[in-house]
Amino acid sequence: MQNDLRSKRKVTIRDVAKAANVSVTTVSFALSGVGRPVKDETRRMILEIADDLGYRPSPLAKSMRGKALGQIGIVLNQGDDDLLVNSYFGRMVLACVVEASLAGLHALVIVRHPGEEDRFLSTVRESRADGYVLAAPRRDDPVVEQLHREQVPMVSIAGPRIGIPRIGLDNRRAMDELAEELRRLGHQRPVYLAGDLDQQDAVDRLTQFRAHAGDDWIRATFADQSELLDAALFELETRLRGPRPPTVVVCANDNLALHVCALIKRMRLTIPDDVSVVGFDDAPSAGIVTPSLTTYRQPVAELGRTGVRHLVSLLNGEATVDLDLSGHWLWRDSVAAAPGSP
Hints:
alpha/beta, six-stranded parallel sheet, 12 strands, 42% helix, 15% strand
């Protein structure tokens, strides 16, 4: 799919705001009548400047006239029960909804549940939103193909690089920083538990881990595939009992890391004296378990907010660029120097 959904340069709401020496928000309120009141004199000035510049509101802006709010869809691939309770995607969705509200928009959350593909596609089709934020879409996702055929604006968060505007995480930088610190601590035998390899973030992290540490990794997922998780933990236990056990277990997410910590404790090993454990995401539980979990704090809320802002830009006829945001490592008690290192 070619990157042909990006809008060509034309007069945008930002141009009007610059010419009027006011904020973009003020222009939006003046043109739509939604949000806080704008003084009559200021509103007349903005309307005149918009007309002089040849600014034409997007379909979204038109739908907002007369106090009617526009609507965007937030499409989510995760259908697990704890979606909106202390989860990465739950926090992202909340940030999207809040940002949409601040922009004067309704946000409709559409969740894909396993085995309900036809119903899911029908819900997306019937929602008739002005545009969509797709949270972690998969490659060859039928929703992406459907929206592309209908020429509906969309932005992906943490999705594959498939030619639509994308907001993601700089996974390469995150894994590079981790590898450097683990080398400093003397860890020569790391093992990696990979997450759902249908998700771009999981692929990117695994790829960069292998660039530093080779092919010592185990495939595991947390949701919906308990047999795969059990098999991964069994393999990890076998390695931990072997003659050259790993000195650190790096996990694709915090949920996996918490399962690993429980396994290590059942084996009567000590974290981090016998083996260190690293997570990813900074789930709410990561800082309160014992020992506290070393993990990477993703800018989850900023990912959601930026996704909505990019979608609004597309709806306003503005060009967008792909962005990779960065978080930071939280070095907690689950990581220490490798056993026997100086």
